[in-house]
Write a structure and sequence with these properties.
alpha+beta, Rossmann fold, Topoisomerase I, domain 2, Topoisomerase I, domain 3, four-stranded parallel β-sheet, 30 strands
Length: 703
């Protein structure tokens, strides 16, 4: 009997959809992209219309064979891959690679994996959108041209193993530029003066703001501060103005990919990769009790803040029932995404049902999934709640001396109605001021105040902060660099390439990051230019919408790029990066160790070389934490050069395993997973054993 064949990307998604569709359907997973450009050659012919040479991806021959076999018994093919360019391209590649053009084919698109959404999508199938496929092909070919054409030049001019990327190189340059701002920054001394004032028995504090009406005071050193304090001690203090008003604070929009990654870093200290791993599992389906798997959140790669009317209605009903009608705004709150390229047909990241409260899901989710679901759920519910209300008071105080008048200011804000803050408050980046001021006493114009104490304080201006994961993602989005699915891979890639390192949560460029960035800026200025890269993203969006053709777009890019390649091959100078200093001391001669690069990567070498030839490998941290103490795990070697993975806090912690731990946490307890018996993954904390192929594929789909 003929069946209906359904194609998705991952086994987890296949299980969830299979149980929704039930009898008559066969669901197969592609395990990510089923074909791609070849690894060891360019795979694109710029002289012949940029014709791509696609081959079956490594390890996917068996998957392709299974799809072909299933198609022989199928009456119709449903392509149910993800609702974005990558998903559209995967669907198209499946048809092409398996030669299924003669089989009746339908494209089904849904943004949440729930029974209602999936069944509705299958009732209204579409055709493959070739505009999205073309945009994905254009992006893939652009990235291949940049990577495969520039990287060999870097190998010849600097050293082997280096790479360039259309998006990664811009991200590295942003980090390098910020580091140079930090290096060039000259701290400047300045002083502030506050006054403790008293009205009757009530005390409060005000800050010196100006002199002689609106002349702002600048205090450069201690002598100036002491001189002002001497004058202010003789002043009479009077309230000259009191202004009261009600201020409302509105909730922020539900999450999009970038804001989810930013908030998960701020509040949970999750890397972008860790965030997307947990979000992928929540989207693809979780088994709730004895029931069937259900997707708990909508699709997690999106740049749209749009929310379906049904979801808004359900959320408002929940708010009314839980908090009362006062907590629901009078009119439905609608959020509009301002960034170009946002696809309003997509939805924001939200719970598929707000009735599934985080506390109810605790038994079915691992630690990472529960924390992220709690964040997504609260953000969505709060977005449809009433504004928080504050009583804001600002006070001007005149300090009159025999010769001058000075102005002190004080303000406070008192929460009078919690509104959405009863549930959720957005996190702050480190450079944002989060200090709340104490409430002021009741003051009226003309009140005479007593001076209790003057408080001069020395300050120094601070350099611009280095990027964290949250602020880098924010900057990439604001500059139009990349798209929702690219932020996590970009951040992983620039660390894997050893162009930047993360120190105490902040990105710092390595010496090679400086060298490669400067060479690219000199010889490929457009490749590392944020404006040019953003324009290219806009052109890819225009291809998606049918406003632009993909091949002419590639031709226009390559016409300029080919000239730059030719010039760089001749004129780019050979550069040998300077060794990077370290705090480590050579145990053989007592001189500092430094980081050098060799044929097999970076290593530690004595700065007294060649007199002292001491050299050793650098501890390479991996994307996993020690399950015993929480420190980073490092790749290490035994005396016989066998690689193992141990705690970087050794000898204080002796945890070690032979197999390289997976970055995906245990789905049962969030513990550390290691490969086991070739095809399995085993948890070092609990008794979990699962399919290694499925867990690795989840990482592949994310990348």
């Amino acid at each position: 009997m003929a069946t209906k064949l359904v194609i998705v990307e991952s086994p987890a998604k296949a299980r969830t959809i299979g149980r929704i569709l039930k009898d008559g359907y066969t669901v197969k997973a592609t395990m990510g992209h089923i074909r791609d450009l070849p690894e060891k050659e360019l795979g694109v012919d710029p002289e012949n219309g940029f014709t791509p040479k696609y081959i079956t991806s490594k390890g996917k021959q068996k998957v392709l064979k299974e799809i072909k076999a299933a198609a022989k018994d199928a009456s119709i093919l449903y392509l149910a891959t993800d609702p974005d360019r990558e998903g559209e391209a995967i669907s198209w590649h499946v048809v092409q690679a398996a030669k299924l053009e003669k089989l009746p084919t339908k494209r089904v698109v849904f943004h949440e994996i729930t029974k209602e959404a999936v069944q509705e999508a299958f009732r209204h199938p579409k055709k493959i959108d070739m505009k999205l496929v073309d945009a994905q092909q254009a992006r893939r070919i652009l990235d291949r041209l940049v990577g495969y054409k520039i990287s060999p030049i870097l190998w010849r001019k600097v050293m082997k193993g280096l790479s360039a990327g259309r998006v990664q190189s811009v991200a590295v340059k942003m980090i390098v530029d910020r580091e140079r701002e930090v290096e060039k920054f000259v701290s400047t001394e300045y002083w502030s003066i506050e006054a403790d004032l008293k009205k009757g028995k009530l005390l409060f504090r005000a800050e010196l703001a100006s002199k002689d009406k609106n002349k702002k005071i600048s205090i450069g050193n201690e002598d100036e501060a002491n001189g002002l304090c001497a004058a202010l001690k003789q002043a009479s203090y009077t309230v000259s103005k009191v202004q009261r008003k009600t201020v409302s604070r509105q909730p922020v929009a539900p999450f999009i990919t970038s804001t989810l990654q930013q908030e998960a870093w701020r509040k949970l200290r999750f890397s972008a990769k860790r965030t997307m791993s947990a979000a992928q599992a929540l989207y693809e389906g979780i088994t709730i009790g004895e029931g069937e798997p259900v997707g708990l959140i909508t699709y997690m790669r999106t740049d749209s803040t749009h929310v379906a009317e049904q979801a808004i209605a359900e959320t408002k009903e929940y708010i009314t029932a839980t908090y009362g009608p006062d907590y629901v705004p009078k009119s439905t709150r609608v959020f509009t995404k301002k960034v170009k390229g946002a696809q309003e047909a997509h939805e924001a990241i939200r719970p598929t049902s707000v009735s599934r409260k985080p506390a109810m899901m605790q038994a079915y989710l691992n630690s990472d999934q529960l924390k992220l679901y709690d964040l997504i759920w609260k953000r969505m519910v709060a977005s449809q709640m009433a504004a928080a209300l504050f009583d804001s008071i600002s006070v001007n105080i005149q300090a009159a001396t025999p010769s001058d008048n000075y102005l002190f200011k004080a303000s406070s804000s008192t929460l009078t109605f919690q509104g959405f803050l009863i549930l959720y408050s957005e996190g702050k980046d480190e450079e944002e001021d989060g200090n709340d001021k104490p409430a002021l006493p009741e003051l009226t114009q003309g009140d005479i105040l007593d001076l209790l104490k003057l408080l001069p304080e020395q300050h120094f201006t601070k350099p611009p902060p280095r990027y964290t994961e949250a602020t880098l993602i924010k900057a990439l989005e604001e500059n139009g660099i990349g798209r929702p699915g690219t932020y996590a891979p970009i951040i992983s890639t620039i660390q894997d390439r050893d162009y930047v390192t993360k120190e105490k949560g902040h990105f710092e460029p390595n010496e090679m990051g400086f060298v490669v960035t400067d060479l690219l800026a000199d010889h490929f200025p457009e490749i590392v230019n944020t404006g040019f890269t953003a324009q290219m993203e806009e052109k890819l969006d225009e291809i998606s919408s049918g406003k632009r053709k993909w091949i002419p777009t590639l031709e226009a890019f390559y016409e300029v790029f080919a000239v730059e390649l030719e010039n760089a091959a001749i004129n780019m100078p050979k550069v040998k990066p300077a060794p990077e200093p370290t705090d480590e001391i050579c145990e053989k001669c007592g001189n500092p160790m430094e980081i050098k690069r060799g044929r097999y990567g970076r290593f530690l070498s004595c700065s007294n070389f060649p007199e002292c030839k001491n050299a050793k490998p650098i501890q390479t941290h991996i994307e996993a934490d020690c399950p015993k103490c929480g420190s980073k795990l490092s790749e290490r070697r035994t005396k016989r050069k066998r690689i193992f993975y141990g705690c970087s806090s050794y000898p204080n912690c002796d945890f070690a395993v032979w197999e390289k731990p997976l970055s995906t946490p245990c789905p049962e307890c969030s513990g550390l997973l290691v490969p086991h018996k070739k095809t399995l993954a085993k948890c070092t904390k609990c008794d979990y054993e699962g399919s290694l192929e499925e867990l690795e594929d989840k990482e592949l789909v994310l990348a």
